[in-house]
UniProtKB/TrEMBL annotation:
Keywords: Hydrolase, Nucleus, Protease, Signal, Thiol protease, Ubl conjugation pathway. This is Ubiquitin-like protease family profile domain-containing protein. Residues 1-18 form the signal peptide. The lineage of its organism: Eukaryota, Metazoa, Chordata, Craniata, Vertebrata. Pfam families: Peptidase_C48 (PF02902), SENP3_5_N (PF19722). Residues 100-257 form the Ubiquitin-like protease family profile domain. The keyword Signal applies. It comes from Astatotilapia calliptera (Eastern happy). It is found in: Nucleus, Nucleolus. One of its GO terms (cellular component) is nucleolus.
């Protein structure tokens, strides 16, 4: 706690130097409030960018904090504070939404170049569904592997309370070994589309989904959906340039498809989008 106190004092001192007409105690109080609010909302400073803090400081002091030197100081202090205080809150921080529970271990997969895990994938998919009620169905990330290994018999009960043919869009995340991709199904257009940020041509995956749709149509007595399906491979979408952002790309595909938005993002946007998804999960609501 002594170390934490010293960090608070360092923040207060820096802000006092940056805005000398304000007393030291005021600067310390305001900086402490900014960081404590972020920790309370997010459990860590992972989703906080230097521009977020600079914007708040400018609003408070009515001064320009975007000078490179000031931003560099703010960035350094964010890192220092994150290292010294993050673990205090992280031990107990939880995000609860419906049947989903995210811990800091889960949210931490959105940091840097970590691989996203199933918990993050599935809760974000729930948020996508809830952003367009009754129009989209997001399949659990374990669905495809069960379908691939057990066939229709292994997943036929997964939609016992859902008529997928009454939806506009189905979103099926695909997790094969260490890579995420996505299959979307446009029900009205009878279109099955495969999205892969590494542009891998996986022909088996859409075929599995096609056979699943046929079996589901028979079970649900939806004869109109037995035929007329077409398959597509979307190769001209945002492409990743590393081995770690495939999950982040998949979640952005899901969000854009559900909301009818263009894929106007690429590898350079992933750090910002990872921070945004972290915040969306903590607020249990998509930013649209």
């Amino acid at each position: 706690w002594c170390f934490l106190f010293k960090n608070w004092e360092l923040w207060g001192l820096t802000l006092s130097l940056a805005a000398p007409r304000y007393p030291h105690s005021c600067g310390c109080h305001l900086s402490r409030g900014i960081l404590e609010e972020s920790l309370r909302q997010y459990g860590s400073l992972i989703p906080i960018h230097v521009d977020d803090v600079v914007e708040k400081l400018q609003d408070i002091f009515n001064e320009n904090f975007s000078h490179p030197h000031r931003k560099a100081v703010v960035q350094h202090l964010i890192h220092s504070f994150h290292r010294s205080s993050g673990s205090v809150v992280a031990k107990t921080f939880r995000v609860n939404y419906k049947r989903h529970v995210l811990t800091m271990d889960d949210l931490g997969t959105l940091y840097g170049q970590n691989w996203l895990n199933d918990q993050v994938m599935n809760m974000y998919g729930e948020l996508v569904m809830d952003s367009v009620p009754k129009k989209v169905h997001f399949f659990n990330s374990f669905f495809y592997d069960k379908l691939r290994t057990k066939g229709y018999e292994g997943v036929k009960r997964w939609t016992k309370n859902v008529d997928i043919f009454q939806k506009d869009l189905l979103l099926i995340p695909i997790h094969l070994e260490v890579h995420w991709s996505l299959v979307s199904v446009d029900i009205p257009r009878r279109a099955i589309t495969y999205f892969d940020s590494q542009r891998t041509l996986n022909r088996r995956c859409p075929k599995h989904i096609y056979k699943y749709l046929q079996a589901e149509a028979i079970k649900k007595d939806q004869q109109d959906f037995l035929t007329g399906w077409t398959g597509f491979f979307k190769m001209n979408v945002g492409r990743q340039n590393n081995d770690s952002d495939c999950g982040a790309f998949v979640l952005q595909y899901c969000k854009c498809l559900a909301l009818g938005q263009q894929f106007n993002f690429g590898q350079q946007d992933m750090p910002r989008l990872r921070r945004q998804m972290y915040k969306e999960l903590c607020h249990c609501k998509l930013m649209v």
